[in-house]
Amino acid sequence: MSTSFSRARRRNMGIAATAVAFVVFILPFLFTFLMAVKTKKEAALFLFSWPSEWHFWANLTEVIKARNYMLLLAYFNSTVITVAAVAGLVVFGAMVGYVLQRRPSGWNRVIYAGVLMGLMVPPAVVPTIWVLQGLGLFKTIHGMVLIQVAYGLAFSVLLYRSFIGTIPRDLDEAAIIDGAKPLAIFFKVILPLLKPVTVTLIVVQSIAIFNDFTNPLYYLPGKDNVTVQLTLFNFQSQFQSQFNLLFMNILLVTIPPLLVFIFFNRQIVAGMTAGAVKG
Amino acid sequence: MTASSSSVVLKNLAKSFGAVDIIKGIDLVIEPGEFCVFVGPSGCGKSTLLRLISGLEEATSGTIEIAGRVVTDAEPSERGIAMVFQSYALYPHLTVRQNIGFGLSLAKRPKAEIEAKVQAAASVLQLGPLLDRKPKALSGGQRQRVAIGRAMVRDPAVFLLDEPLSNLDAALRAQMRIELTDLHKKLGATMIYVTHDQVEAMTMADKIVVLNAGRIEQVGSPMELYNHPVSPFVAGFIGSPKMNLITGPAAAALGCTTYGIRPEHLDLSTTEGQWQGRIRHVERLGAESVLYLQTEAMGELVIRLPGQDCPAPGSIAFVTPRAGRSFRF
Amino acid sequence: MTRRRSPYPYWFVLPAAVVFVTLFLVPTVASLWFSLTRWDLFEAHFIGLDNYRQFFKEPFLVQGLVNTLIYAVLTSGTKSVLGLLLAVLLTSGILWQGFLRSVVFFPVLVSTIGVGITFAALMHPTKGAINVALAYVGIDGPAWLSDPGLALYSVAFIDLWKGVGLATLIYIAGLAAISPDYYEAARIDGATRVQQFWRVTVPLVRPATVTVVTLSLIGGLRSFDIIWATTKGGPGFASDVLASVIYKQYQAGFYGLATAGNVILFALIAIIILPLTWWFNKREVDL
């Protein structure tokens, strides 16, 4: 459809769209930033104004020091959970997608049923807590990691399955003739070739897990294993009168996805639109 | 590079996928050092037969012996075979050196041994300067040679080649035919080569196995198949242009169900001959010309003449089969 | 004859299967039982369908159910329509198109809690930037998040703001898959721009529509964190949805009731999504 608008009209529409996008999408972020660098008193006014005093570093150090450096612990926990869960999603998901694509059998229907459930069914939270307690995993980082793996597997399997379909079987067979055993075929031939989709999966799932609020709320309560989103949520009630610190916290939580977005834009788009065309 | 050459013996080998019989009981002996070509139209089972020998497919019944050892149930890597795939199947993430040495490194051979073997293969195949490249950076012919190199370092008893030239352009294909024949001589290894191209079969094979619908039609040297085809199928498949095959009342009048005569074995005359007809079309190739003659008695006949002098389309001509060159099936 | 082992062994599925079955499937199946009990995580007393009866009798629980439906349909519908329009705009070659795509998409990647807190401030009835701006043009802005009649819709708007970028992105991919030949053929046939949109774009972008509608409906029905970060279901129960009701019951220690809520949510999603998927697939065969 790109050909029939005139050049001038495309320019004018672009300028108009940018103006609207600025008000709708950029101003809220600008507001967050301005709140984060204001003084406590000024922030409490909620005004959309330039800060009279620039309190960036003061607010930053204060929010980090708050409640005995809780934010640092939260970042540490969230990072551990994200890295471990994503690693699990990559390896486990790719293994399932591989067998699913390469070995047609009656079991595939069972696996697909599981995938469909994983995408659709809301987790039964209280029974999950009951299971986690039974396994001694409730309120633990390990438990949280496994939960994120369990909840993200369906997406991971689907993504890998469709990509593995594009890798010629001849490669597996060449490796078989070269004497590779199943594990060697998978880890030395297939997994390296999955790199593009693995990068996509890592980026998309990292953001999802890092931003996850609901699951840590249920499965990781308590002060010892706080995550970034939980800390932010809890600060909301603690910093009732310190909106500058609250918004500094929001700013800090927003920066990691922003960096990932800048560097991995293409992979994010690939991951988010997987399946959009085929339906 | 001395590959030990070995025999391959297939006994009553069969393969079905579900209810479909792809290979229907094949008995075949391939002698040590032989260049054996499986040829046939697509769907005849030639690739499946090769995959049965490689172990990538499991036989439904029958046995496979390689170098005197029954390997019917052995893993592909334990059969003493190496395979060159139609797509080459080079590992895209590995360099040429790593591709060729992949099997050896899986077998945990010492680094020095791997390097020596890779170098040896590379020098035979003139891949030396390309060893650190990835497959993406190679031409079709170079990829082909890497695939062969990967097969060579396994010191296989038998090389299996699955339509290895079909992804190359015509000129390169002709060149690779000669290179492969030279390589076969140099290595002295047993090679089994699958193709649908009868030219490749004729030019390279010691022994051709013509397959049709999962069965062997005929086994023999290229000239045996050309001179003494046992069936209309083989007669029509070997030789280009295709042999004229006449069926129906015209063949019955000559005392057979199918009468065959090769285009190069029909003598043309403008004055007299056994069959009269009108020239419908002429293809001039320079060194030779191909005529399509519409006859009353035999239907359309294809005639191959040396040189460029031949009657114009539309004119009347006569043809006579050369004595002793016709076939009655 | 001994069968050789496949190069694709089933045990490759095992690590994933163990995690999935233990932490997803077992709780899901167990929820069917626990929803029929009065339960304190240690002992469960069978009480039949009492939990379900309560769910459909208590007005605030019923409201949660209704709100869930309103919220899901509203967010899914607006995301689909706006997403398609934005996608068409952002593939028409306008100035700064790439930048605009990024701007529309970025909120998808941002912390929901952060977005919730920011909008709670922007929507503050007296100090919030939205109402301050409205006051400039002489409009007395409402209490977006604390007016019981408005809260649910305000939260749905925030959800739309955050999620429309994903719908746009999916539609852009869908539009890219339509061959330009169709538009050229339509133009030669004399179709106007609007006709092209209805006769070419809308039917041919269907796979993307299926994805957007399905994803956003499931997301909308399960929605929790954006509501919890802004209104906590309030004021009163005005913006409560099933997911927030479940959390409240869980917090209050009514584990059986919370689990019954979970089962109802599951059933609601199944009742809506399965026929929808079936219908989408059926239409696909007709094409």
TrEMBL record, chain B:
Instruction: Cite the GO molecular-function annotations of the record.
Output: ABC-type maltose transporter activity; ATP binding; ATP hydrolysis activity
Domain ABC transporter positions? 8-238
User: What Pfam families does the annotation carry?
Assistant: ABC_tran, TOBE_2
Gene3D superfamilies per UniProt: Nucleic acid-binding proteins (2.40.50.140), P-loop containing nucleotide triphosphate hydrolases (3.40.50.300)
CDD domains noted in UniProt:
ABC_MalK_N
- Xref: InterPro entries: AAA+_ATPase (IPR003593), ABC_transporter-like_ATP-bd (IPR003439), ABC_transporter-like_CS (IPR017871), ABC_transpr_MalK-like (IPR015855), ABC_transpr_MalK/UgpC-like (IPR047641), Mo/tungstate-bd_C_term_dom (IPR008995), NA-bd_OB-fold (IPR012340), P-loop_NTPase (IPR027417)
Q: Which GO terms describe its cellular component?
A: ATP-binding cassette (ABC) transporter complex, substrate-binding subunit-containing; maltose transport complex
| Keywords in alphabetical order | ATP-binding, Nucleotide-binding, Transport
User: Hey, which family's this protein in?
Assistant: Belongs to the ABC transporter superfamily.
Entry protein name: ATP-binding cassette domain-containing protein
Which organism does this sequence originate in? Stagnihabitans tardus
TrEMBL record, chain C:
Which chain regions cross the lipid bilayer? 12-35, 105-122, 151-178, 254-280
For this UniProt entry, which residues form the secretion signal?
none
Q: Report how it sits in the membrane.
A: Multi-pass membrane protein
State any GO CC term: plasma membrane
Superkingdom of origin: Bacteria
State the compartments where it is located. Answer: Cell membrane
Q: Which Pfam families match?
A: BPD_transp_1
| GO biological processes | transmembrane transport
Identify the residues that the record assigns to the ABC transmembrane type-1 domain, covering every copy. 65-276
CDD domains per record: TM_PBP2 (cd06261)
Q: Which family does it belong to?
A: Belongs to the binding-protein-dependent transport system permease family.
Q: Which PANTHER family match?
A: ABC TRANSPORTER PERMEASE PROTEIN, INNER MEMBRANE ABC TRANSPORTER PERMEASE PROTEIN YCJO
Annotated protein name in UniProt: ABC transporter permease subunit
